[in-house]
Recover the amino acids of this structure.
């Protein structure tokens, strides 16, 4: 009889391991199952919202809410009831009963918006379809509340243990709930949303038909689209607007037709076929007669878009969508009213596409304080054979292109078009403005008449070529390339753009109605002209007097106002400069030797990088010993230099001492 074999110790261990594995697997399964039971269920967020006003107001309201929906991971967005006649009186919709559930699809292309939102896993549904899906109570975000309050309501809504929560946003544009900081934080997304709101097929067909008629009946190879705001509702809007801005005299809101015609001549666009767009159902007798006179104006071909579009078959906002499409895509030139949301939106879009766009009224664009993306021209001048400033200029251009939405323009003398720097500037997309001042011979005479002390006031005034270069910028006002713009930023070439400039409108930057400079140094009364903002309209109106003041002088030194073109600007515009107040130095003209963390533009006023290199190498610099020492001892200087050097790759290999010093830890940055 065989004795049974005892299980081996190895087999026992194998079985034990199997049991342990099975137990662990079961425990893990049980843990996952229990966690599934207690886990908060997914709450689907359904977002509805309202719009108000005309085509452009509703467009921006939709773009704002859709941007918010993507950021907040909303699941379902219900397209809004669109007002098909958005005429307003004192901010109140005059025809709210023209809201229609199908309006979104009539004005905008449904499929484009649907596909864009679906990329973020958001379902876009029409109101009639959504109403059959959900009927629970809505958490309403009032227009008078903040966006943060709305976000808290959405958070509470998500916490409800229901299959779907409903958040409704009242019309956001431009009420308290409209959050500019939110849009600036999500600028790229906001632009993507706006680009997804393309015209519907109906709007495209209407615009295409109108374009064909304009081309057939026009008398010129070019077209100028003019958005006239002369309606009765606009008159009331301007009254409310001027009360809101404390009757700011720098802004023209209501401009009559004859003044518009005059400005078209000044802009040099009246020779083209002029297409005028306005609400023909809301014009008083006087304006209607002025429009009729404009149509019969001798030497001008004026087409009325109301005569071209079918005004009876389609409602107001579809016609507005077609007009906007023509103005943005087809017209060679556009001229509008900057206070109008529609005009401002068209100007913004055309300038982003580098297309010509102007305004016939005076003043800034109010909409630029509420949405990002507006741009102004930045102008600088290059002159002479000296190449030492070229590396500074290239850094200024590169940093502007990468950090800002500014539109760069450079003033170049026709004798210097063949210079390497000009070829480089063209390669970077900089608009080259070729200009030869008529007053150059007289300026050279004045330079010779000046005393030796006046010529030694700056290294820039010792040689004729340098004098011509510094005074060159006085002719900014007469550059034809700037005719379309209302405001300009001028800087010297020795600047660095840290951050964007135009997104500060309404937050630290108010574009002046005249000219605005920052201080030279704290102990000097004169202002520094190395960086300034100005109204181009103001510069044009005062240019003849400025040049006359230049030509009547016997010296390039202007006494208490200082030498050179800076002294002339301080002297001639003294009253306007005092009234305008100081431009923020720490934001827009921060000196390299005393820069701040808030700086948007840093100016290498006085010492240049080569001087700071000398200071680090020899513990002092010959030209500006005090300022050099102040700069290199600043805690922020190496932050500035390390940023500056990033934009100066090929040209900046000659700064070994600065590179070495600024690569060390802060505690070791000593001489």
């Amino acid at each position: 009889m065989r004795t049974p074999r005892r299980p081996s110790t190895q087999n026992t261990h194998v079985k034990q391991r199997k049991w342990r594995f099975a137990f662990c697997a079961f425990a893990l399964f049980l843990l996952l199952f229990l966690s599934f039971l207690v886990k908060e269920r997914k709450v689907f967020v359904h977002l509805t919202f309202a719009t108000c006003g005309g085509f452009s107001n509703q467009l921006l309201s939709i773009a704002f809410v859709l941007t918010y929906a993507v950021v907040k991971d909303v699941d379902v967005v219900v397209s809004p009831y669109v007002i098909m006649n958005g005429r307003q009186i004192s901010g109140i919709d005059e025809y709210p009963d023209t809201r229609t559930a199908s309006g979104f699809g009539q004005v905008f292309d449904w499929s484009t918006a649907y596909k864009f939102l679906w990329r973020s896993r958001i379902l876009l549904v029409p109101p009639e379809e959504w109403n059959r899906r959900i009927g629970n109570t809505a958490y309403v975000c009032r227009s008078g509340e903040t966006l943060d309050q709305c976000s808290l309501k959405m958070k509470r809504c998500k916490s409800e243990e229901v299959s779907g929560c409903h958040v409704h946003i009242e019309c956001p544009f431009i009420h308290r709930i409209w959050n500019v900081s939110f849009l600036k934080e999500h600028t790229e997304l906001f632009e993507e949303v706006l680009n997804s709101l393309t015209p519907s097929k109906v709007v495209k067909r209407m615009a295409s038909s109108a374009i064909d008629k304009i081309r057939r009946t026009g008398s010129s190879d070019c077209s100028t689209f003019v958005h006239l705001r002369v309606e009765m509702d606009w008159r009331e809007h301007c009254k409310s607007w001027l009360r809101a801005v404390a009757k700011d005299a720098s802004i023209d809101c209501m401009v009559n037709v004859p003044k518009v015609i005059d400005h078209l001549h000044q802009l040099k666009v009246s020779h083209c076929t002029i297409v005028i767009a306005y609400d023909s159902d809301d014009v008083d007798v006087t304006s209607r007669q002025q429009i009729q006179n404009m149509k019969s104006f001798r030497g001008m071909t004026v087409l009325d878009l109301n005569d071209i579009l079918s005004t009876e078959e389609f409602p107001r906002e579809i016609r507005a969508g077609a007009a906007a499409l023509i103005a943005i895509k087809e017209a060679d030139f556009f001229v509008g009213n900057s206070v109008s949301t529609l005009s401002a939106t068209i100007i913004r879009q055309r300038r982003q596409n580098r297309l010509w766009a102007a305004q016939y009224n005076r003043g800034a664009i109010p909409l630029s304080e509420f949405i990002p993306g507006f741009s102004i021209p930045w102008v600088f001048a290059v002159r002479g054979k000296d190449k030492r400033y070229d590396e500074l200029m290239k850094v200024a251009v590169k940093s502007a292109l990468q950090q800002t939405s500014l539109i760069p323009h450079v003033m170049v003398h026709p004798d210097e078009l063949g210079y390497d720097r000009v070829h480089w500037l063209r390669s970077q997309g900089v608009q080259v403005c070729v200009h030869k001042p008529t007053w150059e011979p007289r300026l050279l005479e004045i330079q010779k008449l000046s005393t030796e002390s006046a010529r030694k006031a700056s290294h820039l005034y010792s040689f004729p070529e340098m004098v011509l270069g510094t005074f060159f910028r006085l002719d900014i006002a007469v550059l034809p390339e700037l005719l379309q713009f209302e405001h300009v930023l001028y800087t010297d070439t020795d600047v660095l753009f840290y951050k964007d400039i135009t997104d500060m409108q309404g937050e630290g930057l108010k574009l002046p109605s005249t000219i605005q400079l920052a201080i030279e140094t704290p102990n000097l009364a004169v202002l520094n002209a190395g960086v300034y903002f100005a109204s181009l309209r103001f510069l044009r109106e005062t240019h003849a007097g400025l040049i006359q003041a230049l030509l009547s002088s016997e010296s390039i030194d202007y006494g208490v106002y200082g030498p050179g073109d800076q002294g002339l600007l301080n002297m001639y515009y003294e009253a306007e400069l005092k009234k305008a107040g100081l431009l923020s130095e720490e934001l827009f003209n921060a000196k390299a030797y005393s820069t701040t963390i808030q700086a948007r533009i840093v100016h290498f006023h006085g010492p240049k990088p080569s001087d700071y290199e000398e200071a680090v190498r020899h513990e002092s610099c010959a030209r500006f010993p005090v300022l050099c020492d102040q700069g290199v001892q600043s805690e922020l200087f190496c932050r500035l230099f390390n940023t500056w050097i990033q934009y100066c790759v090929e040209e900046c290999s000659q700064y070994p001492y600065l590179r070495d010093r600024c690569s060390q830890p802060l505690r070791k940055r000593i001489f």
